[in-house]
Amino acid sequence: MLLMETIAVLGLDALPYNLLKTYAEKGIAPNIFNQRNLDHSFKIRAIPPVTPASWPSIMSGVNPGKHGIFSFSGFDKLKRKVFYYNALHLMHPRITEMIAYEGGRALSVNPIMDYPIFPHKNLVIVSNMFFTPKPLSYPKNLHEKYFSTEVPLPKNTESYIKYLNGLEALLEEYLRDPPSLIWINLNFPDTMYHSNPDTLNNPEKVSTIWSRIDKLYKTLKQTVGNVVTVSDHGFSKYNMRISINDILVNHKLAIPTRAKKGYATHTAPDRFSVIKINPKIMNFLIRTGLKDYVLSPFVRKVVKPLYAKLRGKKLIFGSSYYIDLQNSKVLYPTLYSFGVYIMDENLSEKVVSIFKKYKGLSLVEHKTKIFSGEYLDRIPDIIIIPDYDKGYVVGPPDIVGSVYTKTIVYDHDLWGSMILDIENMELVDIDYLKSLDFVENTVVAPLIQCIMKYPLSVYIDDKELIEKVCSYKPEYKNYKGKFLVSKKLAIMKK
Ligand SMILES: [Zn+2]
User: Fold this and answer.
1) 356 CA to centre of ligand 1 in angstroms
2) Is the pLDDT of residue 439 over 70?
3) One-character DSSP codes across 391-421
């Protein structure tokens, strides 16, 4: 056995834990989904279950309060404005970077956040699949050498195959002298699930892509030996949508408006027809009780079924598009906010108690009870997570005129997966890990560092658990300084 183990990680965005067995039975990618791997598979929890937050938690071992990225977008309370996250908001290095700082070589494909990239002499980086506005690589010509400028699209199987072929060619070059760590993130199956939810339970409908990914896995297994498969959240079907902003308006904590000041744009799904009502009229109807006791029952029992019958679409009454970001006391600014921002801290307890009364929400807590770290100010004050397991999902920030909308929505859930296909299983206490109902997504990076025998970050969230399952006493290091320097250098060179 080598002193340091080499590991390859295959990140499959949104691969649900509860479908691993089904996929194995269907024989969809037999090198990944098989009985041996099922025996070494673990349920991992992602709060919040969203790509830009969960991958950094997985790759760094720390929660969003420490790594600084909570979702696609955040809300700047001072400017009262929505902003988008990118890699510059990342405040803790990922495992690929930590390994590089320790002198190991790493190949990093699509590290999230993926733009900009932070070059390092021990790192090979390709970033060309998720959110980056343009393909990037280090060394610079690498992207051109192996990939086309085309980003794989769910409706085009060919484009995925082309991408995976490029990846395989890149690996062929780098596996001649394998780096210590290879980490590959793919936006598959997530983009496929979103655009064609049928492929969630019927993966055979995209078997060509699954077979190609299976081949990639086989290559990694044969050349590197240790392969970890991991996903950043799960994916499910829901039948009830909750409107957070309707709750806020009903409790007079937010003001409806048509003004989009401070907002990012988005559109309502085309399977709905939205009828917009002047916010002043809607406010009047809410205040006087006319809406709840007269209009809503009539609309629910008569108008909506009639409309669905005639037009085949759901009818939604919207008071306006949005809530007023400039003047509201409590805000749910964007889809995937996973909570509300409170402009007056004194309202905190009141808001928690209001949301706790609504059914369909499994987690309503002040952020300090769930997260920790220096960057808590970027996180919504009250975390609100729907009861995904019971079919609830939280909707976009539009005010729709009712808190609950019966509908069919496919979206993320909390339960990602991790499969440890490791040759030397004695390095971690698999039985103990297996005895747990689930582990947090922050366990992944330090667990891999333990297996690789590299020092862990002093900031990791799950120190106790890692020390319990790691077969030796791990060493700790503070990698943050080096990371901040490499970020600064990357900005200067731009
Ligand atoms: Zn994702």
Assistant:
1) 27
2) yes
3) TEEE--S-B-SSSEEEEEEEEEESEEEEEEE
